[in-house]
Amino acid sequence: MITELAKNINKPLSCFNLYPPACERTKWESLPEDLKKRLVNNGEKFLHFEYPSITAVDFMTFTRTGNRSDFEDKQFSRRIALDHLVLAECVEHQGRFLDDIINGFYVICEENAWQLPAHNSYIRDTPQLILPDVTRPVIDLFAAETASVLSMAEYLLRQELSGVSPFLSKMINKNLEERIFTPYLQEHFWWMGDGSSQMNNWTIWCTQNILLSAFTRELPEEKRMAIFQKAVKSMDYFLDEYGEDGCCDEGAQYYRHAGLCLFNSLEILNDITDQTFLPAYETEKVKNIASYILNVHIDGIYYVNFADCSPVAGRCGAREFLFGKRTRNKELMAFAASDYQNSEDPLTVDEHNLFYRVQTIFTHEEMISYEKAPVISHEDTWYESVGIFISRDDHFCLAVKAGDNNDSHNHNDTGSFTIFKNGHPLFIDVGVETYSKKTFSPERYDIWTMQSRYHNLPTFFDGDTEIMQKDGAEYGAEQVSCYFGTLESGITMDLASAYADPRIRSYIRSAVLKKGNGIVITDHYDGELNPVLSLMFYEEPMVSENSITIGNLGKLTVEGAASIRKETIPITDKRLQTAWKHDIYRLLIAIKNQDLILNIY
What we know:
The protein is an alpha+beta fold. The chain has two domains: 2-368, Alpha/alpha barrel (Glycosyltransferase), CATH 1.50.10; 381-600, Beta-galactosidase, Chain A, domain 5 (Distorted Sandwich), CATH 2.70.98. The protein contains 19 helices and 22 strands. The strands form five sheets. The protein has an eight-stranded antiparallel beta sheet with strand order 12-13-14-15-22-19-18-17, with no helix packed on it. The chain has a five-stranded antiparallel beta sheet with strand order 3-4-5-7-8, with no helix packed on it. A five-stranded antiparallel beta sheet has the order 10-9-16-21-20, with no helix packed on it. Strand 18 (547-550) and strand 19 form a beta hairpin. Helix 3 (33-44) crosses helix 5 and helix 10 runs parallel beside helix 13 (259-272). The longest helix has 24 residues, at 69-92. The chain is globular, with a radius of gyration of 25 Å. 47% of the residues are buried.
């Protein structure tokens, strides 16, 4: 689609002009006074900022210990500080922040590599090198992100920087050329796509930042066109991964790096080609990609989550609002504006993509003044391309994952379900811990959060041997069927194939939302092993024989249980703590015969 639209271009590509540089004072000075004050105040916190030192040992720590966050915290804090300083200078425009901005440029350009240690390899799914090869830069997510930070900062303050020294822009351009543009055109990184390999958010996230870096500056026309042509191919490879329904198999959290990066890539392309790519917004697939985030929203801060996605997937803001505007989705616009108005951090002070921040600043007034949203009509949804079933009534939201165990950011969770009641988590999907070396390695499924036994799924026992689900496209649900109605909606599937053990002949799961009358989960098992069902909770379940009270939120009755045992799981990981503020709980229900029925109300 994108490559086809590119054929309609009949004049040279323009430079980026979506948002004004600081020297265009009218637009910056016309921002609301309270917004300008906040931006300056944020910048003042980083005056005389000591950019953290990053050593070779810091880089090597990932290979030696598996720890990602120590290095990343230092690298990210440099870019976040630079963003705050740049925006404060754009608003105040008195030169007060320039020295600290220039220091930021220097320390980032002095880094031997911009890629993360966890991504320091040339071939997908191969071991990372302990240190970077400075003669062969790797373009990963954060090398591309760093390029966009520097390029956007230099674009915004080009005139002001030249008043200090013409060599500042030259330094940034040299680094962009050597670390980004040359390897982008000469190398094939896996995320660029080849028409057969599986893509994910890397493809469009990197492409967005490459486009932004290239078109915020003057480059030879031949090079600009080569970057453009390679980028539009990658965009099509990314879109090819999506079904027509627009479902993001990585979940709501990763939609921010997938669907929204598609939107911004299109915005940049439209800006540099006199709106050649506007027809993309009229296609059903792109419209559906835009509205995905609305469809998987539950209530408040919560979203339907499976795989690595957290149920607390982040507030909506300018990008969702503008995507809704482009696709003429007024509900998405209202939802995003409302979320922005209610956000604890509308200016995204921890965001290190400077482009997103500028986008927010120049959309701020429109979102703040946007009419109060009526009650958003979250409709029942079946995302066939991924196998996500969502049904709601006035109290419950039931989400069930069919599909297979080959999603991007996959967990072995085929057939699992989550339930929210009155906007609060009742049955949960835990999400993922802080990324480490093990997270994206052959040892991934040694991590407890990835395993089917820590989802709302059965585990089968042969004596003391546990049989859990396996990962891969061949391990998934079969005989899937679903229906939607005004009185009830439901989904049924056979989960046996997800376990790949011939002694499990079938495991038929049915989940039905009886609208206004609760939820019924029915499991029917035929096999030679002993099944034990895991159920995951945020609020503590209090067990009294076969009746369970779930905090102050709901109740569960169990039919067909031989025994019920409760476990407490402490939540000590920082990433998990963003969603779960206290311990979580697991019930282990041994199935007596063939049938188990859960009545939830």
